[in-house]
Amino acid sequence: MGRLSTLFDPETVGVVGATDREGAVGRAILENLKTGFDGEVVPINPSRDEVLGLECHEDVQHAPPIDLAVVVVPPDIVLDSIRELAAAGTDDIVVITAGFAETGGDGAKRERQLREIATENDLNVVGPNSLGIMSTPTGMNATFGPEDARSGSISFMSQSGAFITAVLDWANEQGIGFQDVVSLGNKTILDETDFVREWGEDPETDVIIGYLEDIDDGQGFIEAAREVTEETPIVLVKSGRTDAGAQAASSHTGAIAGSERAYEAGLEQAGVLRARSVQELFDYARALAGLPEPESDGVAVVTNAGGPGVLTTDAVGDSTLEMASFTDETIDRLAAAMPDEANVYNPIDAIGDADIDRFGEALEIALEDPNVGSAVVVAAPTAVLPYDDLAETVIEQVETHDTPVVTCLMGGKRARDAETTLRESGIPNYFDPSRAVSGLDALARYRDSSERTIDEPRTFDVDRERAREILERARRRTDNRLGVESMALLDAYGIPTPQGEIVDDPDRAREVAERIDGDVVMKIVSPDITHKSDIGGVKVGVAAADVYDAYEDIVARARNYQPDATITGVQVQELLDLEASTETIVGMNRDPQFGPLLLFGLGGIFVEILEDTSVRVAPVDEGTAREMVDEIQAAPLLRGARGREPADIDGVVETVQRLSQLVTDFPSILELDINPLVAGPDGVQAIDLRLTVDPDELDTEEP
């Protein structure tokens, strides 16, 4: 166990603010502790000599030593109570009291002071504004909720106390049990990352689940969860699906990769399974807590009802799994065992008059097929198929074959006893076939993520000092934005760029063009003009003899379009063969929780229309960068679809890695777009660049 083990296994729990007043939170907590806690309960209240039959102490100094303190006093005396507890040697504290940062300025100040006290004394503080905590092995219910948790192997954290009370009420009815339960509250000291680490070290916790509204330290959470999910699954419901964070973004990447995509990418990289609803959260958890991992993705369906069997097949098609292809031997065995009317292919329909023996034999034959990694038993109630006996048969087959099996015993009260029997053996039963399949799907997805190898990101030899000098130019800009005039930033990090130069007069433009072999591309350079093509600010295929006139025309169009725009000059650049190439985008948007969020996708003028992109949190290793490239729908274009010569995908992957290093080295880069990054058979070239820099952050970065 980790450093929080005493939080869940105290010998003595003190309730600071205990009372016998009807309806008071201090009374509810004391009653819950008295009901089942194995250890000693110590009420503390200077106004009472006795509370609910327990001796009450006037303050912490006059009380016996307290391992865990539950603080439920008014907000204005919480800080003094915590100081007294720290002085008395109590390290673990749960602050139930509200009235902190959630209430505004005064509360936020009080919360800052609480953090200072806790940090100074190295305290483990849950809350404030918490429902409390539970631990079923010791019978400890240090909450003011109305329900005790059943015993089980799932540990549960929630940012909402009300969510916990609702879930426990429902879970008790469903027979779902827990190891530890924590209401995170305001997360002033202990947050989701701390409990992920703690439960990851707890051999009694089989699955970690949670309801979160935000994650304070995205990078820290990814690191902790990635380590924990090698052995222990994590399933989360994350509320607040919003792209509000993207509305203020000025880059393509920022507009596409909003806060919701940051969470999607971060949780996936952490190996966390994300549930879309409370029902799905527990559907996943029940399967992960009781079943072995499937050895393959092939699913066998055994049923006595054709319609539900088809529904189950559809659900498999909608998942990451696949219907298992039976071997000829399996089909021959099923044909010999089943009536002529039965379907011996997958899904196996043993037909409506199937009894226990036929159902059991069909399941046994299916589980012995080498292509079957898991199975769903789907049954409609009949007079010849007692569900209690079917449950025992399923358990026997699971124990014999060590293959994950979930059941869908359709019906109401008729299925309840059988469901209890199955649950006691770790086999979840679902009424809906699609939910049964989602449980198996969670097992397979967890298997894949836990087996995935993440390498250390590659470190390239770069010119960091040169890059810093270029970023310093942002100090001279009123809007902190840099554009193609800063292409040398990419050169400093080894990202290829075409031959060219930015000039501020037409004669110089012609000189640059004459040094370039072939025609050139010319673009207006202005931090105020985003969509250059829309205003005629780009000319492609310009001969050297026409460059002078093209320069004058581009500048005139820009001034007519936006008279107050700052025009740096015109970029004269080597013309690339785009016919044989694909325009892609590589970018970064710095997320408040997760940090640098890398984006790769189809680029050029269609980037925000098609939004064919993939996202990951930096830094990334080569495997992750390659996943980003393979993931987009346009990936076949890069691989050489319809007779095209394949692009240099290795060059694209390396560019993603180099950009990952750049934005990790310089937290001052808030947003960055390379659009397009042209990927062709002979390599990649970054054609255009746009970025936003925080000069204040530059001051904090190491030279």
Automatic annotation (TrEMBL):
Transmembrane segments annotated in the record for this chain: none
Coiled-coil ranges (or none): none
Gene Ontology molecular function: acetate-CoA ligase (ADP-forming) activity; ATP binding; metal ion binding
Keyword set, alphabetical order: ATP-binding, Ligase, Nucleotide-binding
Documented EC number(s): 6.2.1.13
Record-linked Pfam families: ATP-grasp_5 (PF13549), CoA_binding_2 (PF13380), Ligase_CoA_2 (PF19045), Succ_CoA_lig (PF13607)
Annotated protein name in UniProt: acetate--CoA ligase (ADP-forming)
Catalytic activity: acetate + ATP + CoA = acetyl-CoA + ADP + phosphate
Highest taxon above the source species: Archaea
Chain ranges of the ATP-grasp domain: 487-523
PROSITE patterns the record matches: ATP_GRASP (PS50975)
SMART domains the record matches: CoA_binding
